[in-house]
Write a structure and sequence with these properties.
Blueprint: H1 3-9, H2 23-33, E1 45-51, H3 52-67, H4 84-100, H5 108-119, E2 126-133, H6 138-158, E3 162-166, H7 173-180, E4 186-195, H8 213-216
Bound molecules: flavin mononucleotide (FMN).
Length: 221
Amino acid sequence: MQLQEAVLGRRSVRKFLSKPVAEEIISDIIAKSLWAPSWGNTQPWEIIVATGKPLQEFKKRNRAALLEGKAPQPDIAMPEIWPPSNKKRYVDLGKSVLQALSIAREDTQARTEHFARMFYLFDAPAVVIFAVDRALLLEYAMLDIGIILQTFCLLAHDSGLGTCIMAAIVSYPQIARQVLAIDENKRLVMGAAFGWPDPDAPINSFARSRGKFEEFVRWVR
Ligand SMILES: Cc1cc2nc3c(=O)[nH]c(=O)nc-3n(C[C@H](O)[C@H](O)[C@H](O)COP(=O)(O)O)c2cc1C
């Protein structure tokens, strides 16, 4: 696949086939992702890959925490306020997702079920979590994690896999620590669910949007 095709063709996938992903494929994608740049070539990441029974247990406990109304306590605080233009895009995404699932806005039960599926990590056959040591300066480490995460997603897409970067994977980090044996001194930055995309699922094909070039770019000539 050409790089441009990969960049433009990658999208978040939220429904997967039940077919597992072979470990060789996952290893190959991660080995190539390790070529991502990082500050001073520090390569500050720890990468946890979860599949099979441990992942099943993690999904169940993650969903249960949500349904029990436990407050998320991510290691990296989630934004609570945004500039209006950012907020509008967030709200628009929510509308597109609900529309693709044929869920009416006022149907609270169906919306809860969607959130439950999300915290069940869309039942993906595999999940990757990127963590960094607590001793690291977080802002810089976050840049490095962002770069390797997108590298991973593009390479996965190149292999025909679908990915969804998910804050919902690291919203209850204590559960991940317990079930996936992650050290207390690692901060869980972000995760991605991945697997073979369900080609027939409308949630995998709704139209996405991006702001106009002029909204973001200012030439200084
Ligand atoms: C840091 C981060 C966290 C995200 N968390 C979630 C999540 O918890 N659930 C979800 O459905 N999508 C999540 N997404 C996916 C975004 O909604 C998605 O990337 C965005 O809408 C753009 O769509 P695209 O990935 O299809 O291009 C996350 C993306 C990023 C970068």
